[in-house]
């Protein structure tokens, strides 16, 4: 299937200019602008981000997007509609200025900023889990959208989310290397909440330190980075690395983050209310 779009496309009866695109998790995000002046095109009436999905069963994609469209929370980017673009199922969203990853590409965050991001992210995840039995399963800075500042975030891209049955995810799913917990490397059920909390902990380290807690060695000798990350998740080396990276932060911060990424899920945070209580208890 050809992923290239022409300079102008039609979506739900309106013509949009294609102003950019970027590779996202399991698909591509297209930036579409609908001009209010059809002649000059100088002023835009609507600006959208539209994600098409690759390598997934389209019926399954629709099922997962239907989960997303039910979510209504201030810290969740709403899915406007499910449409078709370039012969693919597409998730249509309002455009935001950028992602948390865009900010982290320029600088690290203070603890105050990180605390705000984590609280809002956990509030969104708690809502989805408590009200809709839904786990996100791909939490990372690139899926946290912002409007210029990390003080107001929204969790985006619920396209690989899963309904949780008796606290467990029944089958493997896609993932982003570095943000999944060790138990998801095994072909057996796992806790959606515990998996998302692990990713929140890794994201906290990236916010504070600029990089995740993995050692990257020569790929020619040790294999692709994704393979190296998998090895470090298996042997627990990432925990030692995280401890070293968090040494300069206050003990309550280090303790909380390390509790999120514990290799044993039974010793990890397993309740968003408890995690939110502890986050709010650490001064900003």
Supply database-style keywords:
Transferase(Phosphotransferase), domain 1, Phosphorylase Kinase, domain 1, three-stranded antiparallel β-sheet, six-stranded antiparallel β-sheet, 284 residues, single chain, alpha+beta, 9 helices, 13 strands
How is this structure best described in words?
The chain has two domains: 8-94, Phosphorylase Kinase, domain 1; 98-281, Orthogonal Bundle (Transferase(Phosphotransferase), domain 1). A hairpin with a 2-residue loop joins strand 2 (14-24) and strand 3. With 284 residues, it is of the alpha+beta class. The relative contact order is 0.11. The chain has helices spanning 58-69, 100-104, 111-132, 192-209, 219-222, 225-235, 237-245, 251-260, 272-281; strands at 8-11, 14-24, 27-35, 44-53, 79-85, 88-94, 98-99, 134-135, 144-146, 153-155, 162-163, 168-169, 190-191. The model has no long low-confidence stretch (mean pLDDT 87). The strands form four sheets. A six-stranded antiparallel β-sheet has the order 1-2-3-4-6-5, covered by helices on one side. Strands 7-9-10 form a three-stranded antiparallel β-sheet. The protein has a two-stranded antiparallel sheet with strand order 8-11. Keywords: Kinase, Serine/threonine-protein kinase, Transferase.
